[in-house]
Amino acid sequence: MNTVTRLGGFALGLAAVFGAAYGIGQVAGPAAPVAESSHDGGAVHQPGPADQGEHDEAADRLPGGLLVSDRGYTLEPVAAPAGEFAFRIGGPDGRPMTRFDVAHDKRMHLIVARRDLSGFRHVHPDLAPDGTWRVATPLAGPGQWRAFADFAPTGGEPLTLGVDVTVPGPLAERPLPAPGTSTTVDGYTVTLTGVVRPGGTSPLTLTVSRDGRPVTDLEPYLGAYGHLVALRRGDLAYLHVHPEGTPGDGRTRPGPAVTFLAEVPSAGSYRLYLDFRHGGSVHTAEFTVVAGTPTTGGYPTPGGSAPTEGADHGTPGHGHN
Ligand SMILES: [Cu+2]
Question: Are 10 and 65 within 8 A, CB to CB?
């Protein structure tokens, strides 16, 4: 397909998707522009109704990122110019949130990945006074994307909301790379040690080397020597992963090893994305790991045919290029 045509369709498609989402937001909540925050400096919003409480209990059992709306907060994509991704976080009072706490050095972490777990990006949007977050679009081409907003609203608990965003165009689903304990990115080799156990917290250590030598001068990134995101295959559950130690605490070394504690809720395949900073740039090393009993049934495997019955992915006839 002609590139210009394809890009044109891409931009129009984005406008259409965001336009639709924006319309829903307008109907569902107060649309009045927020001239001034209604915070009174003291009161903390308490979700009152009993059904809200039950909802919260259910949500507490879920991994992050599966819900577009949780605990009164809603992730709302809004119309944006071509080349930009924009969204708001609707607050418990229905208005866009404008106050967020800093977590991991930022007030907002936006993570995107295609539903096939390819195309991962981790970016930090800018907040406009009206509560709109904007960033150069991290959606790198056509596909079914999941966008995660990871944030801590002032006065509320940290949470991660997720929303689907479709970027129209030729769809080429990529098979999930095979599980492995070593990968290369930008000239770095990163190895993974540790066993991912379902239903608990698993220590994972990632070790960075370059040209066969350990990298011992990693640079702090987001308040740590690495930032790890894990997504579950099948539903893109967004898992909590905490780095062990912080730069400057007197015991945490700037590489070559960085250790994380990953909470893995179930058996299955996960994709790990390690962001680390070295040489003034952020690099992302990716791994596929399997927790518990491998769940290969229903998914296509690289280089081979696999049963596709009952799978969302692997529709017969899909090209894997
Ligand atoms: Cu971030």
Answer: no
